Amino acid sequence: MSTPTTFAIRNNRSTEKFEVNAAFLKITEQLHRELGDKPIDEVIAYLVTRVKGKYLFTKRLKAVCYSIGMMNRIIDEGKAYRMVKMAEALQWRGFELIGKAIAARPQVKAVLIAGPSSSGKTTFSKKLSMGLEENGLSAQCLSFDDYYVDRELTPRDESGDYDYEHINAINVPLFQQHFQQLLAGEEVELPRYDFPTGKSVKSGNRIRLKPGSILIMEGIHALNPLLTGGIPDENLFRIYISGLTVAKDDDGSYYGTTDNRLIRRMVRDSQFRNTTASETLARWPSVRRGEEKWIVPFQQNADVNFCTAFQYELALLKQKALPLLENVPSDDPNYEEAQRLIWVLRRFHDIPLDLLPPHSLLRESLGGSASESSFSTCKT
Questions:
Q1: Is residue 40 part of a domain?
Q2: In terms of Cα–Cα distance, which of 69, 56, 62 is closest to 27?
Q3: What is the rounded CA–CA span in Å between residue 205 and residue 198?
């Protein structure tokens, strides 16, 4: 079975479950033959049914996902662009649905977005703000990443490594103060965390939440009640996102469920945090332990669960990730894991990077995203 993006929108009266192919295009070979030459809009209309004012993704999307062999054939046939565009369009349907759910709750003042490392929280928050705008709401986005304490103050795990997933890696008192002030309509100056130096510095960025606007907070601890204590539950809308690997081999077996996020993080850290592949691989076990302790337990608090993985993303990420992994020397403790990931990535045929839309969630790792002004309602 494939892993669909499932999110449950809860309210006081019922639980509405939408199985959404927001993470990747799940179409059987039969559907691929039926729809392969149709315009994108017709395909989306075929896959999405509007029932009593709600968009429900039909059972047609419950088929097995592409195998790597089938996906490679689509790429070789020159149809990768359609695969990418359709998956992006389907994911956008998910943002529309969430936007509608939030708009239906006028008492909501803040949206909290949590998820493990490299699940795409920052871009998710910006795209969600656009979904809210379509429903007549404005939003202001803030990131927990800017509330990290100085590196030397960061707790350490049992191995002696810095534990950035620990709740006390966040300046909890400062965040609580700013959160309360913003919801009260006061102006605050946001901190900025400088990753290369490991220091929290003043940003000079002062913000105030406009009347009627919604505050979007994204970060690994967003669903931890310690950070939002004292805020009435009805004023909060909680979202948990993940990026589970959905790559399936031709024999039906799946690869490691966290490989997508590991490779996303490796590419991102290399480009934006001056970190080598070996350093990312070395930290990954600690990251995973921290996630299981500090992040995963709170996903049950979410109003929405959303998977951000695209099935084809490794065919894009490999072009940035392979050179990084190939530079891990044979005497490095992480060499074996690097070789395993190289083997996985080489199973995918290349999808040209320029096929990826500028607003794609994958741009968070790959770079080349649309300018900040394109997310007109969401400023960080």
A1: no
A2: 62
A3: 19
Tens of pLDDT, residue by residue over 267-326, are 999 988 889 999 999 999 988 988 888 888 898 888 888 888 887 889 999 999 999 999
pLDDT tens digits along 80-126: 888 888 788 878 878 888 888 899 899 999 999 999 988 889 889 98
Does any domain span residue 56? no
C-alpha distances in Å from residue 297, one per residue of 58, 213, 265:
31, 29, 22
Sign of the alpha-carbon torsion through 144, 309, 54, 16: negative
Distances (CA, A) of 361 to 75, 254, 349: 21, 23, 21
Q: What angle do CA 184, 127, 119 make, to 5 degrees?
A: 100
3-state DSSP helix/strand/coil % of the chain, to nearest 5:
45, 20, 35
Query: What's the number of domains the chain is made of?
Result: 1
Torsion angle of the four alpha carbons 194, 198, 201, 206, in this order, in degrees rounded to the nearest 10: 50
Residue 70 included in any domain = no
- Rounded to a whole number of angstroms, the CA Rg of the chain reads 21
Question: Whole-prediction pTM value?
Answer: 0.79
DSSP letter for 65, please: P
Q: Find the domain containing 309 and state its range.
A: 107-374
Size of the chain in residues? 380
Q: Per the domain annotation, does 129 fall within a domain?
A: yes
Task: Find the CATH number of the domain harbouring 149.
Answer: 3.40.50.300
What's the CA gap between 246 and 215, in Å, rounded?
32
> In this structure, are residues 239 and 114 in contact, taking their beta carbons and an 8 Å threshold?
yes
